[in-house]
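Retro notes, structure queue

What went well: the backlog is down to a handful. What didn't: a couple of records were mislabeled last round, so from now on we paste the full input next to the output in the thread. Example, using 4-hydroxy-tetrahydrodipicolinate reductase from Oceanobacillus profundus:
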Amino acid sequence: MTINIILAGPRGRMGQEAVNMVNQESDFKLVACIDRKNGGKEVKDIAGLPPLHVPVYENAKECFEAVKADVFIDLTVPEVGYYHTKLALENNIRPVVGTTGFTDEQLNELAELAKSSNLGCIIAPNFAVGAVLMMKFSQMAAKYFSDVEIIEKHHDRKLDAPSGTAKKTAELIRQSREYKKQGHPDEEETIRGARGAEMDGMHIHSVRLPGLVAHQEVIFGSPGQTLSIKHDSLNRESFMDGIKLSVNHVMDMKELAYGLENIL
Ligand code: NAP
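Corresponding output:
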């Protein structure tokens, strides 16, 4: 069976990689793209993309109404990605969303919409399988170590901080870890933010530097020992296996899954 796909954000770093992945998969077919700067053109007219006679729409509503598709992939920015995802569900198309930075309210609203529409929807802050394992291993370790700090490092074009992966890791750790407010009870920051962001007593530190892609280290400590669990995405190809898996999986789902770990 061929899965027809609409993709938003084809000029972006993730989008370009995903267009190429979809184009190379024999069971996937790119049927349209949504791009705010190239409405009315074809994919072949956009620099860096394969020579495909696939229409590009500027307006998502127009695209979803005009083109019949099974799955919608969003790799844009949070405000637009949220709007696109909602619109896709309203048009009976299953979203696979890599865009990060959605609020809890937005996620809840999309979950309700997917459920009431009986449609699958996958929103994953990290599509790299290794990163999902890092989160799972961290959740396992948190049962035995209540002191943990998360250090996430990304390229300096990233809009949201902390990363969706760091927040998701902290949420998973919270489910296994006994609550603890970490550090010295009287500790004081002499420069604001020195201890990073606090979530449920844990600390998350965000590093932004050119040259980085997506990296995270979760460090646990207890008397006499530390345990580090680390994952590095060296390029954006690392996310494509997870997107491929999600496109196939979302076809058989009837509600929203947040995080790739729910379908692995
Ligand atoms: P990027 O290179 O900046 O690409 C973003 C794309 O979104 C561009 O094509 C951009 O077009 C478009 N865009 C920006 N603002 C827009 C707007 N207001 N309306 C319509 N389109 C708009 O970013 P990226 O590195 O590809 O990342 C894309 C998203 O994926 C981000 O949210 C990032 O955090 C996330 N991400 C997720 C994973 C994962 O595994 N889930 C991994 C890496 C990244 P313009 O050039 O016109 O601005």
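Agreed that this is the format going forward. Reviewer comment attached to the example: Helices lie at 13-24, 60-66, 78-90, 104-117, 129-142, 164-176, 240-250.
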